[in-house]
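Entry 14. Ran structure prediction on the chain below.
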Amino acid sequence: MVQSLNTKVELVMESTSFLGLGDYGQVMVGNRAFEFYNSRDKNKYIQIPWEEIDYVEAASILNGRWIPRYAINTKKNGRYMFSSRHPKEVLRAIRVHLGPNKMFHSLTFFQIIARGLRASRFNLKKKQEHEEKK
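Output, C-alpha cells:
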C-alpha cells in the first residue's frame, strides 16, 4: 500500500491523469502535497509536494466557464496533466497552498498560431539581414 504524504486531506475528486495513456483515479489535495491515485492499479500513483510545484497552468474555454484540463509543472520532473470532474474546485484548493501568483491560464489555439507567425517573420527578417551582410 502507498503511504500518503498528506496528514490532512482537504479535497478528493474523481480525475484522469494524462501521463502516458489516460489513467482514471482520484486526485487528493492535502496539507503537504497534490496526489493522484489510480483506481485500478494501486502501484500507479503521483505524489507532488507543494515545494516541488513551479506553477499550475489551466486551459480555459468560453472565458473560463469550462476548464477541460490543467497541468502541474514541477521544478525537476516536468509536467503532469490532469482532468477532473469539477476542476474549479481542485484549482481553488491548489491556489490556497501555492498562491495566485503561481496559477496561470494556458495559451489559446490562436495565441499559439500568432506567436508562431511572429517568430517565423522574425527569423525570416534575421535571415535576410544575415544574407545582406555577406
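The longest strand covers residues 9-17. Will compare against last week's run tomorrow.
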